[in-house]
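Researcher: Sequence recovery benchmark, item below. Answer with residues only.
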């Protein structure tokens, strides 16, 4: 699984490194082949999102608009991203529940979604990545590879 520099730059722009910063989030898009999953684009946050220091909920209409627009450009919806006000982000039970609900209510080409959580720092250990399926949530170990 690879993330482009542009996708990472977008999500890191919203990290909660200031004490009053609110959670932000959006959607992840890219391509899937037999060899790799490539996350090329991240969208959001949107003006009508629900945001507080420790909570985020994407505006469903804006998210659906982004999904349609990215599909028209040939990209697949791969999952969601959001920020946490911690150095090493960890998925809460609410995060997993929200992703499983999204998975159950969506018409997808996959039975798994990505969940990327961005912490306060710019290091790779301040990124958390999980795959969420109906009955399991698995965390991935990330490493930075310069290209």
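Model:
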């Amino acid at each position: 699984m690879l993330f482009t520099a542009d996708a990472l730059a977008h999500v890191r722009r919203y990290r909660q490194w200031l004490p009053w910063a609110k959670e932000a989030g959006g959607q992840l898009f890219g391509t899937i082949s037999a060899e790799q999953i490539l996350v090329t684009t991240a969208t959001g946050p949107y003006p009508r999102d629900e945001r507080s220091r420790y909570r985020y909920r994407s505006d469903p209409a804006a998210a659906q608009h982004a999904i349609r627009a990215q599909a028209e450009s040939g990209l697949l919806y791969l999952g969601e991203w959001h920020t946490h006000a911690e150095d090493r982000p960890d998925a809460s039970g609410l995060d997993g529940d929200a992703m499983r609900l999204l998975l159950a209510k969506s018409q997808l080409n996959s039975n798994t979604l990505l969940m990327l959580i961005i912490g306060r720092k710019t290091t790779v250990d301040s990124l958390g990545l999980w795959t969420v399926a109906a009955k399991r949530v698995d965390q991935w170990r990330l490493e930075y590879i310069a290209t």
